[in-house]
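Workshop exercise sheet. Pairs work together: one partner reads the sequence aloud, the other fills in the structure field after running the prediction. Swap roles for the next sheet.
Pair: D.N. / O.F.
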Amino acid sequence: MAKKRSKRRRTSSRKQEYPGWIWMLFGLALGLSVAFAIYVRDTQPAPPQANARQPASLESAIDDNGEAAVVKEPAQEPAEEPQESRFTFYDMLPNFEVVIPEQETDVTAEVEPRPVVMPGLYILQAGSFTRYEDADRRRAELALQGIESTIQRVTIDDKTYHRVRIGPTDDLDELNLLRSRLRAAKIDAIRIRLGE
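Structure field:
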């Protein structure tokens, strides 16, 4: 008799326990129902405002009996004082005036740049390109002119640039000669001085 009681206790304790996957499904169903309730509440249109007025004809309107009735314009409420804005540039901007000259200024490119006379270490940059192929093409143009150059890859603000650079050189005569050869080949170059 003692064995039967112990078996009953074991089987009854097993029936009360639920497997983990049932608890998982219960929690998932509960979470989804809460999320659905929030979604439904947020997608419902907002109730109309109580202060919203329907536009009425100022001349006349037809009442329930079909007769024309005169509609008086509602009394205007005194204008509210404007609220102080958080931004002051709305007030400041109209006060600024930009004077545009009637004639455009004449800007001409320097025909013959002055030679470099300040000693130092210089690099000439013959272009900066987003595509490597364009930088390599410029490097080939320079090679046809007999100018040795390198391509430097730099990343600025998550953009990659390929700079075509000549030098460095500290010989001012060589630098001025390179600049004149680049001008003759119609290649724009930027002179960069390194250090002091």
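Discussion prompt: The longest strand covers residues 159-169. What would you look at next?
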